[in-house]
Amino acid sequence: xxxxxxxxxxxxxxxxxxxxxxxxxxxxxxxxxxxxxxxxxxxxxxxxxxxxxxxxxxxxxxxxxxxxxxxxxxxxxxxxxxxxxxxxxxxxxxxxxxxxxxxxxxxxxxxxxxxxxxxxxxxxxxxxxxxxxxxxxxxxxxxxxxxxxxxxxxxxxxxxxxxxxxxxxxxxxxxxxxxxxxxxxxxxxxxxxxxxxxxxxxxxxxxxxxxxxxxxxxxxxxxxxxxxxxxxxxxxxxxxxxxxxxxxxxxxxxxxxxxxxxxxxxxxxxxxxxxxxxxxxxxxxxxxxxxxxxxxxxxxxxxxxxxxxxxxxxxxxxxxxxxxxxxxxxxxxxxxxxxxxxxxxxxxxxxxxxxxxxxxxxxxxxxxxxxxxxxxxxxxxxxxxxxxxxxxxxxxxxxxxxxxxxxxxxxxxxxxxxxxxxxxxxxxxxxxxxxxxxxxxxxxxxxxxxxxxxxxxxxxxxxxxxxxxxxxxxxxxxxxxxxxxxxxxxxxxxxxxxxxxxxxxxxxxxxxxxxxxxxxxxxxxxxxxxxxxxxxxxxxxxxxxxxxxxxxxxxxxxxxxxxxxxxxxxxxxxxxxxxxxxxxxxxxxxxxxxxxxxxxxxxxxxxxxxxxxxxxxxxxxxxxxxxxxxxxxxxxxxxxxxxxxxxxxxxxxxxxxxxxxxxxxxxxxxxxxxxxxxxxxxxxxxxxxxxxxxxxxxxxxxxxxxxxxxxxxxxxxxxxxxxxxxxxxxxxxxxxxxxxxxxxxxxxxxxxxxxxxxxxxxxxxxxxxxxxxxxxxxxxxxxxxxxxxxxxxxxxxxxxxxxxxxxxxxxxxxxxxxxxxxxxxxxxxxxxxxxxx
Length: 837
Prior knowledge:
alpha+beta, Phenylalanyl-tRNA Synthetase, Chain B, domain 1
């Protein structure tokens, strides 16, 4: 919301010495976010005056049209003689009143004006356009042509209000009343302790049966509709300078007098309005929900297909406007300069629409307007009649119209919003004693009616829909008393509470992956069906069952993620596209899996801790949210250099990342070959752990399928891993034990076993571990060999076995016996034969 300081002074008698910066500081202190203070006309210096064009001579022989003009500027030039000026614009004629800047003046941008020779003539000044004066967009970008009543020689700086300060306020959703001069003026008056001249306090005639007929079929979507009619408008009337300048400073472009007035009243009172050409309306005005598939061409020229939830304004022909968002083109106010049919009779609509309905309609049609911004934040329903009256008054004053006696007002019954609150509730919330008198005074300042002594009964004003609970009222008292006056106290944490086991595992996993060279990349938890298709998930894949969001940030990603891979792969693709080709990224976070048993969540009070049953009810309303860890890799895993050749990423690196995570959880990972999207069928590993004497699938790792790599535009040989941290935690057998350190020496035994090529190395390793017994400290596969010496369809697996006892030095016989037992069990389970035996 852009707030000109000169306009603000109409409603609050600010001290003359107060600058925009001073007002900014006061408003920030009461909780408004004033982002900037713009100094309009900074550096502007006169003389800048009203002149009248006396003669125009067309200069020939130049590439563009050039005119040599004489302009009467009165005594502003000190001589009273006509001023000679060269000008290239053509939107003015002899006799027009224009704005002239004379030599010695300085325009915005430090543009000094002096007499200069150009196009064979000497130009003593310049005839000005809106752009040159920094006035903003008026839609013409030509010379400013003033109305005839302005005196020649009048100071144009004051006439055009060229010097001002404008506060740019970022209005939060709960402070929608500040999207108006009325709302900002109220906050300013409170901040300065000054009275407010409320522009909505107007004498409004009572409703009667003679107004334009209105039928509201949906009183929930539209609980108030006021209609007024003005006839006999002068089609030649134009918006006066003061009106145009206020709109321009507020960031709006002047269009036509009727439209400018409705925009002006909206900025002034915060009530959006719409003006219909009465001759283009067929029958009564109606308000209803659209029929699915109905069509409407809005004022922006776009033909829109309506949804059954859209609220529309209608006449006998059908929809003529998208309620609270934008009017229809078929009842548009016509401009005499653009349309042979000029509007002389208008029907003014001032209505109040349901905030949620308007917000959803605006998002559904991707059509955010000044009106929808105000309705979706909660406009003042009581301001509709005053806004209609203010519009009628301005049309009568500026357009020469006549207000018809009929006043239509359709209202749905509603009562005041009352809130019961202990008088000391703000004190208990803030930890500061304000006292009842201060609490009552501050609530009355924001517009509340307050009754009672120890227990207050507060009626919230109609323009504050955000005030619904005692804590809302407490916030008003605290912010107006000054957040800076609150004491700074640190909460005392309860003893005996620390991180949970789940949180500790999460942190250990992050540290382990970072230590292994991975970089954490956090992504948004939203996905769409398109990426699930690109990942190659089958139609019945559980990862396609998603939790849909009611109000998603993006229509392309309307659901919560069921896997961490889309976000990570997107980050990898972006970094690879920007020149970083050797990548190892990881993320730990939640995924969301609907169970089908979710219940409807209930809204809990905030004045006390919910009970166990209430918390259980909230949890039952949530989908299953397992915590996962995932990695993605591409490019080189080991860089080449003087130390030797580098090594590209392969599927084994993703499995090793899973093993590192399992080690942090204190569990042993079992790796088996598998086929699972989006991994390559021949390079995909299923990851298992043992829990309660059963193997539990916890994740997958390997190289991505070539088709997935192509669909997602990923580097070749991209690898990935995803693992369930909650299942790892459940598989932990007791508390995590620290590694045991023995002071006795290690005994190393190497074995090479020949097995069939189809036998996974993991099965051989599992058998060796089981057969070696408690003396085995570690086991490592250090060589895989195939060739004629081994035989067709065979492979040789060489393992290094390390044996150690905690209480003695092992003998050769003990180490050999343990090795032989390991080999024997491997032979029994996998058919392994000791190489060279």
